[in-house]
Amino acid sequence: LGHNQGKAEAVRRGMLRAFEGQPRFVGFWDADLATPLETLPLFQEVFRERPDTEIVLGARVRLLGHDVRRNPTRHYLGRVFATLVSLTLGLELYDSQCGAKLFRPTPDVQALFGRPFRSRWIFDVELLARFAAVKRARGERDVEPFLYELPLPVWHDVAGSKVRPRDFVRAVLDLAGIYRERRRAG
Length: 186
Description:
By secondary structure, the protein is α/β, with parallel strands linked by helices. It is built from six helices and six strands, in the order H-E-H-E-E-H-E-H-H-E-E-H. It has helices at 7-19, 40-49, 72-89, 107-111, 123-137, 165-185; strands at residues 26-29, 55-59, 67-69, 100-103, 147-151, 154-156. The strands form two sheets. The protein has a four-stranded mixed sheet with strand order 1-4-2-5, with helices on both faces. It starts with 6 loop residues before the first helix and ends with a helix.
């Protein structure tokens, strides 16, 4: 972008541009590559095995046999935040904030990026709220079959993150705004 408009707007515009090429899949990864690009085939495999899935979200779950290394403070703040997100959206999400997401570019998915996000900090949550609203407006009572959280085999916290504990407060305030919008929309 010509000037810094934040990650949310950069991702939104990049996704819109990517849709123009009519790809099979479109996604975004955090620039620090905490989720290695080598995991991309695992995301694609989910789409092959689950034809109704439209969004695959990476999930930083520490499981035996997986190499997931997170800063303990950020992990626990993230767990609290993920619980608030689940309650706000009415979805059983484990990790909405992992920076690795892949999409099947359906019309419903493309519509998610049609207007700027209100939040610069938790646009991932807003994206999921929009997705749930689109599906529910189409009469889908259960949105979860269209989403899949993929436990990542490798994820390493990368030093130098610009996210600070005070940003957690900002994220909670943004989440309250998303909640209000969801309630107004019915």
